[in-house]
UniProtKB/TrEMBL annotation:
Amino-acid biosynthesis listed as a keyword: no
Major facilitator superfamily (MFS) profile domain sequence ranges: 1-449
InterPro entries, alphabetized: MFS_2, MFS_dom, MFS_trans_sf
GO cellular component: plasma membrane
Record's protein name: MFS transporter
TM stretches of this protein: 37-63, 84-103, 109-131, 152-176, 188-221, 233-260, 266-287, 299-319, 339-361, 390-409, 421-445
GO-annotated biological processes: carbohydrate transport
Record organism: Niveispirillum lacus
Length: 450
């Protein structure tokens, strides 16, 4: 295949595509990280029930994402994918804002039901945006390394999304007074950023030429039957599903780790900043390395590094001797420095295998085009997105069950003292469990061939 400059995309197109991931990452990560914390510390919802609240909308997306993909494939030739991006962006931002607006529910059960309904509608809107958005990545260029370049730029904006969506919320909540006022202000600010970035992509991609090939007619079941014959896609889909369950479980408890185990919730923004910065700095590596050893081997290498550092969280503690002071006077202990060191390695490795999984997904779509002369990019993107979202529902549910089994106690008054068993359960969810899931992912991925 020609991988020269003939298929090189203008940088402006890559940027206009990539910026949409900023808002998409905020919606993907902020509820995953903060919604269980919001429900268990502000609404009094038990941890196990909070996991179910997140699970139900994700289960719906198993059907919704492929249906959106099929729908967008069918109308691509007449209206393109822009209407999906536009209306999906508007609905996603409105849904995000609504999630954290109300705290005065009469009881935890009504709170859980209300949040579940809001998250259901918001997730549907995000599906309408995210599935065509991923499909476009497979349609921008026939060159696999150009598609990798597209994904690198997308993940750069995704790193900023992690920084904003995971690192900034706690600061914003505290800055605006904590409690309900803090949560409200945070949701307005992040919701606005989410809307602006996603609209830039929706509007900016109008008129950009996409690869035009025949599409396979038929209903969703026929589409799935066609996709099921693409062995590389199925292997990658299975590996990514296992990997994402572990990722989601760890995302769910990141606030718990810093609040209860490290006892340094103030460190979260710095932790995220360091991780996002290292991820950004490492992006040239993930442009260069796949050209040298291939995308699949690069994925394995990034995964092994991530597994090693993730296991080390099991030995996290609190306190310790002060080692250095930050410019604003905050003291860092040896334990804090180890946390930041982990964040550097995680930023490099996690950014690598997440990026490469998406890049390899576009390669499996291209494999379908070359093998059969037709590929319904939206259906491929819908199935891949559906399994990712299912994993990010199973992860919080798993976290809720583990936390409850190990004795975690919910409240309506913020942080309360937890037992040693509860603290150990939090550490398992941030170390052993995600690392084991990534190992399982590699076992499946070893059969991947293109």
């Amino acid at each position: 295949m020609n991988t020269g400059s003939a298929h090189r995309l203008p940088t402006s197109v890559v940027l206009r595509y990539g910026v949409g991931q900023l808002g998409a990452q905020i919606f993907r990560d902020t509820p995953a990280v903060l919604l269980p914390l919001f429900m268990t510390t502000m609404l009094g919802v038990p941890a196990w029930l909070a996991g179910i609240v997140v699970l139900i909308p994700k289960l719906w997306l198993i059907a919704c994402d492929p249906l959106v993909g099929l729908w967008s494939d069918r109308v691509k030739g007449t209206v393109g994918r822009t209407p999906f991006l536009l209306f999906g962006a508007l609905g996603t931002a409105l849904g995000f804002l609504s999630l954290f607006l109300v705290v005065g529910y009469p009881n935890p059960w009504l709170a859980a039901i209300s949040v579940c309904v809001i998250f259901f509608l918001a997730s549907t809107a995000f599906s309408i945006y995210s599935v065509p958005y991923l499909a476009v990545a497979a349609e921008l260029s026939p060159d696999p390394f150009e598609r990798n370049r597209v994904m690198v730029l997308r993940m750069i904006f995704g790193s900023f999304g992690v920084l904003v969506g995971v690192g900034a919320p706690q600061l914003l909540i505290v800055h605006f007074g904590g409690g309900a006022d803090g949560w409200h202000a945070m949701s307005w600010i992040l919701g606005s950023i989410c809307l602006a970035s996603m609209l830039i992509t929706a509007v900016g991609l109008r008129g950009v030429p996409l690869i035009g090939v025949a599409w396979v007619p038929g209903n969703l079941f026929r589409q799935i039957k066609v996709v099921s014959k693409n062995r590389p896609f199925l292997i990658l889909l299975s590996a990514s599903f296992l990997s994402n369950i572990g990722q989601a479980a760890s995302y769910t408890v990141i606030g718990f780790v810093f609040l209860y185990v490290a006892q340094a919730v103030w460190l979260i923004p710095l932790y995220i900043l360091v991780m996002a910065s290292s991820s950004l700095a490492a992006k040239p590596i993930w442009l260069w390395l796949p050209r040298k050893i291939g995308k699949a081997r690069s994925y394995v290498l990034a995964s092994i590094v991530w597994i090693a550092v993730t296991f080390s969280w099991l030995f996290l503690g609190a306190g310790g001797d002060e080692m250095v002071h930050l410019p604003w006077g905050q003291a860092l202990t040896g334990e804090h420095l180890l946390i930041l060191l982990r964040s550097v390695v995680i930023g490099v490795a996690n950014g690598g295998f997440v990026l490469l999984a998406l890049s390899l997904m576009t390669d499996t779509v291209d494999y379908q085009r070359r093998s059969t002369g037709a590929a319904n990019e939206g259906v491929f993107a819908g199935l891949f997105s559906a399994m990712e979202k299912l994993a990010f529902a199973v992860g919080p549910l798993l976290s809720g069950i583990v936390l409850s089994l190990f004795g975690f106690q919910s409240s309506t008054q913020g942080m309360i003292t937890q037992s040693d068993g509860a603290l150990f359960g939090i550490l398992l969810l941030y170390s052993v469990i995600p690392a084991l899931m990534q190992i399982l992912a590699l076992v499946v991925f070893r059969k991947f061939r293109l």
